[in-house]
Predict the structure of ATPase.
Amino acid sequence: MPKNYAEFYKCALQVNPYSYIKYRGLEHEMTEEQYNESIYKYCIKNNISIIGLADHGNVDKSSTLRNYLLSKGILVFPGFEISTSEKIHIVCLFSEKTEEQELERYLGELGLSNPEDGNSPSTMSFHDITQRVLDRGGFWYAAHITSDNGVLKGKHNNLWQSDKLVAAQIPSKKNEVDPKYINILKNKDPNYQKQTPFALINAKDISKPEDLDLDTSSCLIKMSKLNFESFKLAFRDPKARVKLNFDINNKYPHSSINEIKISMGYLDNLSLDLSPNLNTIIGGRGAGKSTFIELIRYALDINPMSQNANTSFENICKSNLGIGGKVELVVTSHAQYGKQFKIIKRYNEDPIIKDINNNVSSYTVKDILPNIEVYSQNEIIDLTTDENAKLKILNRFSNENDNNDEKKEEIKSNLQSNSESLIKTEEKLEKLQKKINQLPKLKEKLKHFNELGIGKKLEVQGKVSKEEQYIKNTKKVIEDNDISITNIILPFKENYNKEIKHIDIFDSIQRITNNHNEKLQEIKSTFTELKNTTQSEIDKVYNDWKEKKKHVEKEINEAIKSLDDIEGKTKEDIAHEYTETQKQITSIEPLETKLSQVNIEIETLNKERMQLKEDLKEIFDEELKNLNKCVKKINNNYLKGQVNIKIQPYANVNNLIEFLKEENGLGYSTLEWIKNGSVAKLNL
């Protein structure tokens, strides 16, 4: 499919012919034919599409190189470099259709004082020469402006401010130019300030083919067609259409939609080839801009957030596609390292992803275009009242918070786990405390028994009862005792020998870990055996104790018989109550040690919670700092006073209000104080 959109082409705009090097007192180590071939090879190597021929005050010596490059498909703008009467050098270029005789005539009109010496200055002024070039349909740029014979080094501010000066050559990146010229190039020096837009270009004086390898030898011009008229047109919009090689950020390329095709429905057979740099769709009312965007959204399987927008979206898709309709996109995915994919979305079906060879892929749209967002016109208007949406848009201008989302989610997850552990531990504490709180009453009751002489009479029973409780507690502790043993699971596949180079190393790792797991099983078996043996031995001891208890039961029964009935309670009831009191005290007293341990657990969990909260606050502080930097950059560089963004930290409390509103007895009116700004920053 032929391209019908503008794209950047690399242009080397000051290439010299074979003979030029003699002006520098040097000689080539190759023939002219080899030189021309080498120039072409370096053009292909560096993806250079356009050459500007600019010998010094001469055109006839460039004809051989020009004809050779044309035969190889390189577009050539013929021209020359000339020195004005002010000794300012400019490069003049003309249409690729300009004949050599015409160039000779143009050069002859420009008043060279010595036609045989291309370096001699013209008798004509800067303004006269540049106007003459423009009158002949040509293009010119100020050469090496910060060097000898340059308009800035020569301090010709009046020439620099000329509205005819639309392009100027610098020797390096913009920020590497001599500092004394930086403000002039930024158009901030009042003595040199220009009222018309201008482009800064790199166009190194090429005398050796290998010079074309240098980034400073060429620049990028955005054109819809490869011809001189499109080239000149680009300089009317230099900010968008003229770039240095250094300006193109290949380190962070972006995804793009390259093609869209629509089958069936109202837009049947619509096929558009899109520029990877497309960022605006322009058209009159009813031209189909919204429909175009909504069909792209449909193919990407992204639904509008609001109900009204969703209804409109569904109606557009139904009327423009309908049953049997299909939208097909070809996209380039930055997330998948520049690979191209087809996204096929049939009406009322899920999208299908294919690679460029038409093989169905397991990727989803989010896998290949993870951060893409689509908004209709009405949704954009709705954004003005949605603080979260505005914040989300601002965050897209900052790359510094990219790693924070994962950290925040991890901390929030840890906080949730901490909360659950804290609640369970506090519940455990509450139960323990409830039991321990019974101890003073039980001890007072026991004291009362002793004051009545019951304790002395039932001393043996009390001791036996306490013994039994201790033994039962011991059996429970042994039963609850356990160890957690987990085998090592290797973090690579069993058939790793197909995926790695050093198989012997991984064989050793597997052998060592297998041995480790076997030892763990031995430990677990040993523990289980030990636990069973211990329980069995304790059971034997318990049985021995039961035999001993039989020997004292007569003494216990005699003691019970010696009791008197008290307040209607029989001696048996009194003995039972005394025994139960002893058992409860014996059971509860060890819990005081456990209570201390639980308090330590709670203290540890609270410290952990404080640390997690502080970690989260530090991330919020960092995000706020980065967001403020981002807002300052947007205000200064993009909005420039038309709109001013302000950040009010912790001002969006809508989610908090919605959360609290779910609690019984709380409503909007009750929570209005939060929205009125009474809460500057709520603690977690």
Notes: The first strand starts at residue 7 and ends at 15.
